[in-house]
Amino acid sequence: xxxxxxxxxxAAVRWVGETDGYLELxxxxxxxxxxVQVPCREVAQVWEAIKTLRVRGAPAIGIAAAYGVxxxxxxxxxxxxxxxxxxYLATSRPTAVNLFWALDRMRSVVHAHAEVDTLPxxxxxxxxxxxxxxxxxxxxIGRHGAALLGDSAVVITHCNAGGLATSEYGTALSVLxxxxxxxxxxxVFVDETRPLWQGARLTAWELQQRGIxxxxxxxxxxxxxxxxxxxxxxxxxxxxxTARGDVANKIGTYSLAIAARHHGVPFYVAAPSSxxxxxxxxxxxxxxxxxxxxEIAQPFGHAIAPAGIDVYNPAFDVTPAELITALITERxxxxxxxxxxxxxxVDA
Length: 348
Ligand code: MRU
Hints:
Blueprint: E1 13-16, E2 22-26, E3 37-40, H1 43-51, H2 58-71, H3 79-89, H4 97-112, H5 119-146, E4 153-157, H6 172-181, E5 186-191, H7 198-209, E6 213-217, H8 222-228, E7 233-236, E8 240-242, E9 247-250, H9 253-263, E10 267-270, E11 276-277, H10 294-297, E12 316-319, E13 326-329, E14 332-334, H11 339-346
Parallel strand pairs: 4-5, 4-7, 5-6, 7-10, 8-11, 10-13
Antiparallel strand pairs: 1-2, 2-3, 8-9, 9-12, 13-14
5-S-methyl-1-O-phosphono-5-thio-D-ribulose (MRU) binds at residues 53, 56-59, 96, 159, 161, 165-166, 170-171, 198, 237-239, 249-250, 315.
């Protein structure tokens, strides 16, 4: 049994009220020092929240965008406004496929019936269902993934694939929370995750809240940790997985996978089926978000580089399938990572 003292963090995404209600987001740009909830009553506020990473993580931005489409009905039922909201929200961030997957589901609701008066409740029901399905997928990912780890496992993770990035338990972190629920102890090295520090600000906080032993490291220390410590596994989340198993995830994931291969450490990617893009085969075709230079040269408003320096700031990289030991999905473990195995498990 779990004897740790745990504290469950507030939900990243919450719908308050009925069809005339609003979306409440936990502002992740303020964590871990401030717990601030931001209400969104307009589609544009949801777009801004996704763009600026107040809400982030592939499943969470899909859920938030789905509720964003519901907000388009506050001025009254309108198919045109719902579709325009979906198109607009789709321009917020390009890499995580969950965003487009969730918006396609919302568009299908609009197209399913000619009747417009019942559109707002039907849209809210679909968004709530996307939200609830994600909760169940995260729990199932945790159960499948926990079977891969023994007691006292030492794990490295990158970025934040926890409750903050999803509806509740997360993907990569769900595996660790489930181990804890099963009474297995885990120790986690947390990559700080430059340039926006989702590891330091969000993952370290979530693990601490849950009473899981966490040690914060700079991204550049991960290979050294593998060389000098026993590490059982690397577990990360994903923003998009192609049909052949190439994985887009937070910048730095690829180098972590190379280091893991060199050291013989299993490299696991945990993600729900909503993260698979079966229309793309090669990872090189995944659109990679480029973000503002200021995030690197003046992180959080503090200049650390000479003014005017040229900056390259891709937010994601692609880890080729060949470096991935297994994909942990809600439908089971996919190994070896091949198109055939992915289609067998995800397309079934
Ligand atoms: O830029 P972010 O913070 O949205 O990037 C998030 C990640 O890379 C996560 O690992 C991924 O979305 C999976 S979250 C379950």
